[in-house]
Each structure stands twice: as C-alpha cells, then as structure tokens.
C-alpha cells in the first residue's frame, strides 16, 4: 500500500488542489507515495501561520531551542535505516550513500545543538565613558525553503536546523518526486517537540510555489528565501527576492572541474573521478563535470578511468553499487537531451550510451523497469562545447587536456560556475596556486569534488549561487540579522564623534 501524504500547516493537514505520484525510479511501476499538491494560496497561508508561530518560538531561550535540535538529531539517528531505505526507494540513491546522507543531518544537528548556547554577539568599548556597546543576532522571522530531491533530507537539514535554532519559523517546500522522504523527515523534526506552525511542509509544483512565494513576500510574511536547484530557477527566485529587498540563499548547479597534474597519483585520481562523476549517478550539485588532465598523462588516465568505470556496478540501489537509476522521469528526459550535445569530435571511451534496456544492456543488466542509464566518459571535449560549458546533471563526464597549470585554471573557471573543484597533485605549490586561481567555493586536493562536511561553508559563486554560504557557523548570517545596541549610563547626552576625548600626540617627535 502506498503512502498518501499532504501538506501540514500549523500542525494540521492542508487541502490539496492536485495530486502527484512519486514513483520508485528503480522500478517505475511501484508507487512510493501519492502526494496532495497545494495551491499558491495554501503556500501563502502557511507563511502567515509561520509568522504567527515564530513570535513565541523566538521567545524560547536559544539553549532550549538547542535541546530541540539535539532531540531531532537523536530521532534521526534512531530512525536512520528506515529513512535511508525510504530515500533509496524514492530517488534510487544507493543505500550506503543514503545512509551517509542521513548521517549528514545528524552531523548538522550535532553542530548546531551547541550553537544554542553560543549565538555569540560582542560587547565592545564605546568612544565615550559610561557607555556600552553590544551586538545581538536576531532571528529574521520566516524562512521559505525550497529544496531539490537529489539530497532530499540532508540538504534541507542545512536550512531547517540552523533556521529553527536561530528562532525562525519555516515553510518548507520539498521536491515533489522526493515527497515521501521529506515528509518522513518532517515527522522526525516535529516529534522533537517543535510547536505547531514553527515548521510547516507544503507540497506544491513549481508554478504554485513561485506564485505563493510572490504573494507571501508581498504580504510581508517571508523574510528569507532559501533555494536549492537549477541556476535557471535560482535566477528567478533571486530576482523575486531582490524585488522585495531581500537576498535569497541560493545553492545552484555546478560544472565542477577536476585538474590532474602530471605529478598526480593516477590511480587515486581515477578513484576520485569515478566517485565524483558517477556516484549518485552524477546527480550531486558537486558532481564532476570535466576532467582537465595534463597532456603528458592524458592517454594513460583516460584508459584507466574507462577501465574503472567498466568494472563498476550499476544497478539496484538497495545493493552494493556505484550508482542506481536517475532520480525521476524529469531528470531522465533532461539527461537524454544532454546526450544530444555529443558531437563528431567527441570520443565516447566508456562503451554504450543512453538508457539501459534489453536492446542496450550493460553486461548482463537490462535495467528492467528502472530509469538506468549507461555512464559516459567523453574524451576530446573542447572549451566551446555545450558539454564543457553547461551543467549536465547525470552520469556523464567530459575530458580535456592542458599544458600549463595557468591554462588548467583558466579552463576550470571558463564555464562560469563556482561550486566545487578538485586538483590531484603531489606538489604543494600546485595545490595552492590552484586554490588561489579557482573561482569555486570549495576546493579539494587529492579528493573527490563531492563530499563536503557539515561544518564547513558550503556554497558557490557565479552561476552556482550568489555567494551565500550554508553549513557551519557561516549559515548563521543567513538566518539572523545583526542588531547593535548602545547604552549610555552617563546621565547626559554624549554625542558620538563630537563629545569624544582627544589625546594630543607630538607627531613632530623624532628619534635623535
Ligand atoms: C547537493 O548536491 O546539493 O558535498 C549537495 C556533497 C554533499 C552535498 C551535495 N555533501 O557532495
């Protein structure tokens, strides 16, 4: 029996205006959940409800809110296998990775549970006597958070956990195709004791969400928009937020480069490229886009990379595989479009291309009813190619070569994204020169482009985002606003800059 799920606003189930069916991408005949989709009015109503609930929540002492975060972490930990199994069932993420994803929620809770006892402001001296200066972090109010389904629980937790800890209320709109995973996580969060209305979940399609967001921003019930998704939609969300004098927290796509220097340990680089490019079937925003390999090791690298890929298991995500199916039909269709970008000057070195079927099997695997695709390595990619310049969410990696490190950095920055990057080298000078030159928010040395840890800043530049950062202490600036306070207890009006004591120096003094 499949699940029936609907939006929950203020602790109550909200009316649905339509239905979405979330399918198992590994067996598309299996329904994971029937999802009631809300309209724009329900989204806006959820934001009003959140605004009401936020006032009381902000009055709960931050250390007590920290205890709620601690409970969320415990609940997620106690339900880790169930939640991971659901993620695997709903989006086809290999179970080991799904467990890792659930772990990332716990890590995020572990980090922020103590932040309730910090949320440090500063006490600083004034220019004048008998006056004190302070800074406070205030919650922003209501955060509207719209998330993708490739990380249906970990990435939402990067928004939800700090937003709630800081005393905000949240309206969360998860991806429809990952609705059951999102709803399960929502239940774990509310079981930790969040008062009704502090966290609301609204299932809606993109158009209704955008319209609802526009309404809510107009009504003044949303104070921060968080969005994880494509650069294209991110632009629209950023524009909308900007019209309301807000800066959205945008986590967008990537065309993440991996540079391989002639001094790299090639087998290590192959292992890194394999996981970066084809783990999660290439559907992380941090997945590898293009390998930029030094011309002297190009042929050797490509040969080993193709060999490693051919030996890798693609199949049922419940098993021990490198990759399962694509997330959902929408992603499979888009991926097929990316495959049309292949041109005569490209050389596919990995074997078959396209959907894995009886007529186009991968060894003994025919894909059954799943949205499985052959993983593809394309050699000979050139800087003017769409395959080089644009994100290709899915299991396809381009390869190009370079002569000097400066040229490699230039190639790495050329597509104009800036989320993640990687360099394989045994020379520290190369690593630091790369770090300095690369536009990405994240740099790996001798490691995969993916796999960011929960306590480092996560976010991109250029087409990957507007410079906002999630995770770690940096995200606090997304969910709080600084307030400065001065308190004069001198009993008279002391004017800043004017009533300030001056100590005369003898600036003509010189040593004999
Ligand atoms: C994403 O795909 O939106 O660094 C985030 C990583 C993961 C997060 C990916 N921890 O690959």
Rg: 25 Å
Number of strands: 20
Bound molecules: 2-aminohexanedioic acid
How confident is the prediction overall: mean pLDDT? 97
Q: How would you name the CATH homologous superfamily of the largest domain?
A: Aldehyde Dehydrogenase, Chain A, domain 1
- Count of helices? 15
CATH fold description of the largest domain: Aldehyde Dehydrogenase, Chain A, domain 1
InterPro entries: Ald_DH/histidinol_DH (IPR016161), Ald_DH_C (IPR016163), Ald_DH_CS_GLU (IPR029510), Ald_DH_N (IPR016162), Aldehyde_DH_dom (IPR015590), ALDH7A1-like (IPR044638)
EC number: 1.2.1.3
Active site: 251
Domain Aldehyde dehydrogenase: 18-484
Topology readout:
Elements: E1 3-5, E2 8-9, E3 12-13, E4 18-24, E5 27-37, H1 40-59, H2 62-78, H3 80-91, H4 95-115, E6 123-125, E7 131-139, E8 142-146, H5 154-165, E9 169-173, H6 179-191, E10 199-201, H7 206-219, E11 224-228, H8 231-243, E12 249-251, E13 256-260, H9 266-278, E14 288-294, H10 298-311, H11 329-339, E15 347-348, E16 376-379, H12 386-389, E17 396-402, H13 405-413, E18 422-424, H14 428-437, E19 444-445, H15 476-479, E20 480-488
Bound molecules: 2-aminohexanedioic acid.
């Amino acid at each position: 029996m499949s699940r029936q799920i609907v939006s929950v606003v203020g602790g109550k189930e909200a009316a649905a205006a339509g239905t979405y069916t979330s399918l198992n991408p590994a067996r598309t005949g299996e329904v994971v959940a029937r999802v009631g989709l809300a309209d724009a009015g329900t989204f806006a109503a959820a934001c009003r409800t959140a605004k009401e609930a936020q006032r009381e929540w902000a009055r709960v002492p931050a250390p007590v809110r920290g205890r709620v975060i601690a409970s969320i972490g415990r609940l997620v930990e106690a339900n880790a296998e169930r939640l991971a199994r659901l993620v695997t069932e709903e989006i086809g993420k290999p179970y080991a990775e799904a467990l890792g994803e659930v772990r990332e929620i716990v890590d995020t809770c572990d980090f922020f549970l103590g932040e309730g006892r910090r949320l440090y402001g500063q006490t600083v001296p004034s220019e004048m006597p008998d006056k004190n200066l302070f800074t406070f972090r205030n919650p922003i109010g209501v955060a509207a958070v719209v998330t993708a389904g490739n990380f249906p629980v970990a990435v939402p937790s990067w928004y939800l956990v700090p937003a709630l800890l800081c005393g905000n209320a949240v309206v969360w709109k998860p991806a429809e195709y990952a609705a059951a995973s999102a709803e399960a996580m929502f239940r774990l969060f509310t079981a930790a004791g969040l008062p009704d209305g502090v966290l609301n979940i609204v299932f809606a399609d993109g158009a209704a969400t955008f319209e609802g967001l526009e309404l809510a921003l107009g009504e003044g019930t949303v104070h921060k928009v968080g969005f994880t998704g494509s650069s294209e939609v991110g632009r629209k969300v950023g524009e909308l937020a900007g019209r309301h004098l807000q800066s959205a927290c945008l986590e967008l796509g990537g065309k993440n480069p991996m540079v391989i220097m002639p001094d790299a340990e090639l087998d290590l680089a192959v292992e890194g490229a394999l996981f970066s490019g084809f783990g999660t079937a290439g559907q992380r925003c941090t997945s590898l886009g293009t390998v930029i390999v030094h011309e002297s090791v190009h042929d050797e690298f490509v040969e080993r990379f193709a060999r490693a890929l051919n030996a890798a298991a693609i199949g049922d995500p419940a098993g021990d595989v490198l990759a399962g199916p694509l997330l959902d039909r929408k992603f499979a269709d888009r991926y097929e479009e990316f495959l049309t970008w292949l041109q005569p000057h490209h050389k596919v070195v990995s074997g078959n291309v396209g959907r894995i079927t009886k007529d186009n099997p991968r060894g003994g695997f025919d894909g059954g009813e799943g949205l499985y695709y052959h993983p593809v390595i394309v050699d000979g990619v050139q800087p003017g190619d769409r395959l080089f310049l644009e994100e290709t969410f899915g299991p396809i990696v381009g390869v190009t070569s370079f002569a000097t490190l400066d040229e490699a950095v230039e190639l790495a920055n050329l597509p104009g994204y800036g989320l993640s990057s990687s360099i394989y080298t045994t020379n520290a000078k190369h690593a630091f020169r790369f770090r300095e030159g690369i536009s990405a928010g994240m740099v790996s040395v001798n490691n995969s482009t993916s796999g960011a840890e929960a306590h480092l800043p996560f976010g991109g530049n250029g087409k990957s985002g507007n410079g906002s950062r999630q995770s770690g202490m940096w995200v606090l600036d997304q969910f709080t606003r600084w307030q400065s306070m001065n308190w004069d207890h001198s009993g008279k009006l002391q004017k800043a800059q004017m009533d300030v004591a001056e100590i005369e120096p003898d600036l003509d003094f010189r040593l004999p």
